[in-house]
Design a protein that fits this description.
Neuraminidase, four-stranded antiparallel sheet, 344 residues, mainly beta, 1 helix
Length: 344
Amino acid sequence: MKLAWLKRKIHAGYLYKGLFALAVNLLLTSISLAQLDDTRIAFTSGWTAEIFVMNPNGEHIHQLTDEPKFDDEPAWSPDGKRITFMSYRDLKRIPERGVIRGEIYVMNADGTNPINLTRSVEKAERVSTWSPDGKQIAFTSAELFNGHTLVNSDIFVMEADGGDLINLTNHDALDQTPDWSPNGNWIAFSSNRDGNWEIYVMNADGTNPINITQNPAREGRPDWAPDGNQIAFTSDRDGNLEIYVMNADRTNPINITQNPAEDNRSSWSPDGTRIAFDSNRDDPFGEIYVMKADGTNPINITQNPDDWDLSPSWGPAPILSVSAKGKLATLWGNVKHTNTYGVR
């Protein structure tokens, strides 16, 4: 009798734990979908170019920067607490070249405490991306100009405080627009090193760059999906700039916008179900749109015909953790996914 009673108790305990785990899993899934509405999209707006944030439906727009000297290309940190961006606010020119240089700044997510991370008078810098652990920042840095024409740029990486600067590509071509893979192992970027603009993927230390598009058209602005299985990018292979999505193993590129306007600068939602991008399809200056990840149901969420609205960056979503006592706690950041990505 005691043995049978003990077996029933053990079985009931396992059943309870299994049901509890199932319930928590379902709760986490449903909350993650609901909390996507609590995320923010950072973007550039206005003739003087300032950084704003808004909800994914275009509501609750809030201005973060207020400088008359051009702030652009925001990028969220993985924990959602900071934003890097490019700025001309120092408005210095590269000596004897007449080229205004941008520098990489970081600020708090509410726009406070902007800090110049690069401070390089001799270079022009833009387009930053964070490592998934938030410890490093990769960006484009250009040094050589022929008059006003850029003839060389590279992908650099630095610590999140601006220290330990390393040139990852060190190539005599134009290497630009880096984007870090969700597992931290690779960086995608665009380059003209093979004679035309292509998307490349290299190891996070800069080794083993691989051309993953291999198309005679112009390809640029790679953006990894949150699960690492796909990469969105911009291409004119169908005659005008469109947003494409391909598998990370280089297969199955698909034009998901299919619009005669110029569609550019994509940014995935943290759950991978939607993509923000900018387009001039309703406004010659550009608006921010959100569409499903397959390209359907594009919605203009800025509807601001008098100004530029460009360069969307979709911030991380609040996620839930479960404590040892079974209690739920809300955290902020990206859910880390594990897979092989198909890129070596």
